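agent: user wants the structure for Terpene synthase N-terminal domain-containing protein from Triticum turgidum subsp. durum. delegating to structure tool.
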Amino acid sequence: MAVSLTPTPPILFSSPFFSSAIATRGNYSSRLPLQASPRPCFPHVQASPVAAKSTPSSSIEQETTDVDYDDVAPKTLSSYGPSLWGDYFLNYEPKPLQRSEKWMSARADKLKEDVDMLFKSCNCMVERITLLDTVQHLGIDHHFKKHVDTTLSQIFEGEFNISSLHQVALRFRLLREHGLWVSSAHLLIHAEPSLEQAISFSRHHLQLMRDTLKSPLVEQVKRALHMPFSRTFKRMETLRYISEYKHEEGHNPTLLELAKLDFNLL
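agent: tool returned. relaying tokens verbatim.
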């Protein structure tokens, strides 16, 4: 079967409707611009004439590489005045109790060596028992068991002159608290009427003296009248005494710092 290769003649639209449509299209196309002008994205912003120009990519790269950033950087830094904060944040160093646990442990070990030398340098027995009472109230006596036992043995077995009633009472209390058989009013046992009389006597006179005592002794006397030291919760009493010890005349800064570090480390 033979196939005809003759091209199909074009379809001619002789209808008046198609003729008018083609004429109208020609009129619209003649009014369209050959090259579109740049239109801004926002009606209130006018397009810059520079943006309408087409810049070759090579010229952009050339302009970018030729920029001198030293000329662009501001040169008015020296005109700024000093900060109101000063150098606080530059030289900030946290307080000892805000530092790491490792630092506090190392510092506490150094202070223990200093207190150890302090025990060894006490030649007077009165100074030794006063130091022992202080470290016990500060809650750091567990670090110096050897010195505590040595001091208790000396004041229990030795004979020395004590002229102060406070020192006599302190000696008795320290020995009785550690289980050594001596008389002490607040640590009495049954069938000790003389010590019961001593409690009544001392309580009466301490109540009369409360208005004449100075701080921090007045707070310590009030607590002792309410509850003796041997019956208190040791941890709570240590916290109270640490805050009071720094106000005592002749307090030892080494003992105070060690007590604070030890309290925070436990």
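agent: one observation worth passing along. Residues 209 and 218 are 9 Å apart (CA to CA).
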